[in-house]
Amino acid sequence: MAISEIKDPTYFELNNKINIPDHGKIPLQYDKEAIKAFFAQNVEPNLKRFPTLEEKIQFLLDNRYLESEFIKKYQPNFLKKLFKFVYGAGFEFKSFMAAYKFFKQYALKTNDNESYLETFEDRVAFNALYFADGDEELALSFADEMIHQRYQPATPTFLNAGRARRGEFVSCFLIQLTDDMNSIGRGINSALQLSRIGGGVGINLSNLREAGAPIKEYANAASGVLPVMKLFEDSFSYSNQLGQRQGAGVVYLNVFHPDIIGFLSAKKENADEKIRIKTLSLGVVVPDKYYELVRENADMYLFSPRDVELEYGEPFSYIDITKEYDNLVANDKIHKAKIKARDLETEISKLQQESGYPYIINVDTANRDNPIDGKIVMSNLCSEIMQVQTPSILNNDQTYQKLGRDVSCNLGSTNIPNLMKTEDFGKSVETMVRALTFITDHSNIDTVPSVVKGNKLAHSIGLGAMGLHTFLANNKIMYGSEESIEFTNVYFLLLNYWTLKASNKIARERQESFYNFEKSDYANGKYFDKYLTKDFAPKSSKVKELFKGIFIPTKSDWQELKEAVMRDGLYHQNRIAVAPTGSISYINDTSASLQPIIQRVEERQEKKIGKIYYPAAGLDNETLPYYVSAYDMDMRKMIDVYAAATEHTDQGISMTLFIRSRIPRGLYEWKNEREQTTRDLSILRNYAYYKGLKSIYYVRTFTDDGDVVGANQCESCII
Q1: Which ranges carry the Ribonucleotide reductase large subunit domain (predicted)?
Q2: pTM for the model
Q3: Which of 382, 455, 486, 602 is catalytic?
Q4: Catalytic residue at 19?
Q5: How far is the C-alpha of 299 from the C-alpha of 344, rounded, in Å?
Q6: Catalytic member of 145, 233, 347, 384
Q7: End-to-end CA distance of the chain
Q8: d(Cα 436, Cα 443) in Å, to the nearest integer?
Q9: Is the dihedral of CA 390, 167, 280, 650 positive or negative?
Q10: Per DSSP, which regions of 432-473 are E strands?
Q11: Where are the domains of the chain?
Q12: What is the per-residue pLDDT across 347-356, written as a single tens digit (0 to 9) for each?
């Protein structure tokens, strides 16, 4: 029986029953029954089986399902050993959603999509073999971290590793435009190519001259950023991986750009169809000076990027607006417009209420915390990647007069509940760093030379985390409490310490550091000052107990690491970035990223299938009170947790704000009425800024419709 021929399966019905309270209880047993039914009715009848491992691998090679090169690096006896190890680990999916997502989205299938060719164990094994590049000991280490779900490669990596017909391993890209037509043309081509191979693309438009700016001798001829946005939106719609997925991109604009109001207005539902942006995401780059002007209820000047570049000799994005603001205002050679800062603040909040956009990049905060020589000017599609870039200079034939540096994002996540059970935290993290390093070393996006250059010079990776709320709830810690903040602080301290140790070790092995290491705050030792002057060890008895048996570096350990880094360098320019994590969190049976859960029993709408329900990991009568929905939580508590992680994160953390359209009474002390207002979002954005957050991803607004009464609406439910 083929997958498409499955008739009347019971697993969807069983899964749906968990959302129907039974005498005041959430009947979680139905999810376990749904898993069994899914394997019995869907997986087992359609999993292609082979008499031996050798025959299975040979079939996959002969039919071009797997690349042959990485398999040939291992002896048959070792392949048997590795597969015996992963199958002997006793892996089991803990939820129907996890099993369904894996076999639907990740498992290798026959060309007709009617049979499965691999299990979760197989996918882990092929990832491990691919990353290890022939090193048997390393392959076993990779397999150990992944089969026990301490480490999860990002979706493009986990999905594509080892496959003969595949996309790229990296997650997303950052490119920038300069103020000329050649750069715009090259940028559109780059977006087409990058969208084709599978990543989301971030594009910086801040350097483009505003609408009405002069072009050579012609007065008031420039069209501004809006038509360029439309060109990119059409490019992503066209370049959509043969219809398999919608191309995805985000455009960033500095809040001091004269087109900022039109930029935001293009995303509104009632915008003119000629300028309306439907599928492209929007982000704004926000310097410190903006927050100062909003606080003072002052006028705000917007500056012509063309004039600024002529005066300063470098593109607008690379000017420190906060430092130069008064000089820019006083300079008569720079055309400028004037608005009220709070009017713009209100427009940002209105759009976030309506659409969830724009993303916010606190660019001065990012650069203050940046230990690398150079300037961060933008972020990626999910707002967690923050790396230095340099602009390119193009000839009229779009060849490079000077090749700049752009960014590709290579990501993976630790699973917090599982990594906290590891026998050796440092060894686990080093193994993850080496897996990410393999992808970085073998990534070559040759269609976009500036991305290739950036990757080769930086060797950057982005190790993140998922499952924070799961871990806290299962240890009976309220999300947002002092204990949760303390735990997050120590966990990310350890990630920072051990990724530094691993990067330093790799630099010593290879006798190579990232480009311009000698100009970084790692090389001069300044980066380590806070670890030598402040004690980050756990203080509360609860958090001390959680880290019992796990090494916590002391000031002397940091001093030793500082000396090693100054002496031998670091291989990776960037090491830590926390992505939002989507379907991959379900497969790991844990909560997404660092955020609180949305619902105790989450409802997902699947195409052609209907609704699937996912109960929070470890949900039972004891953990139920600790699983508070993000929509019922004071967002300042979430921001405090993210701020604790940011303290030790060299890039960014993707953070979504969750807020109800009708806010629960007493949740915020400034609220008298219950309706969400633009002031609420402004207060939260400013709070995030003052707590040192580098970015805000989406703003999600939940609207109560009262139509469905399920497990989440039944306040008296028990498990």
Answers
A1: 558-580
A2: 0.96
A3: 382
A4: no
A5: 10
A6: 384
A7: 37
A8: 11
A9: negative
A10: 462-466
A11: 172-407
A12: 999 999 999 9
